[in-house]
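Hi there, hope your week has been kind to you so far. Would you mind checking whether the tokens look sensible for this chain? I owe you a coffee for this, so here goes:
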Amino acid sequence: MLADGSFADVTGQDFVDHLSIGAPGWITAWVAIGLAVIFGLLVYVFPVIMTENEHIQCYPLWLHCFYWAADFMGIWVFIHAWAKYDHFLLFLLLAIGEAVWVGMETYCLTRAVQYEHSIIWKKGTSTKTMVAEIVILTLFMYLCLNFLRFEWHDETMWKFWIFTQVLVTTVPVWEMRKRGYKSGNCLALSITFICVALVSFNPWCNMWLAIKPEFFSLQANPWYYLTGLFCLASAIYGLYLYIKLPPKEDVMGSGKKAILK
């Protein structure tokens, strides 16, 4: 619901109208999407490197399950939109991107079982039980996300998708604060979280605003930007916290030297 009490759906036609070559502001719109995708990849690339190097991840298990469910849902949402809206290129690119993210999340979940079983599960838990819990939690997330998408009339997942940015700029920060150590995190990742918040929530050039200004403008949806301020503050606090925490050991628990400080 908008500030004036009306509703606004985000349809595939909104993408076509704002991203077609020659449309008003189409270059800015593509730049906004490009930046969001780049930083969206970096928030996985850095953790994957540290997972192999340090054998610990910055994201809690439930967040990996949430993202797997969300990205798997996105594959079919964007393939359907690609078929429905005359094979508009962006939908195909987004579907491919979602498949890549699902692949990275699958990797992260398998590494959670392999490397973090002593942190996440009680001693003696079988691999079969760990995998079963991951599957059940991921299925629960998938069902809930599709239910919410139906409730929100969110054909293109655009209203929902911003919550992936909300979570990635906040949850890892508080997880690190709870742990009290730097392992699984790095300076570059902390800076990336700040960039994600800026790219996602600035009121001039973000991809949500570019696709549906009637719904994501500052005037129509101030809660979007107030949430963004909280996410930005959280990410900045995360950088401060990372700098203040004791340095990583020269040799990590994996027996390897830390690549990313």
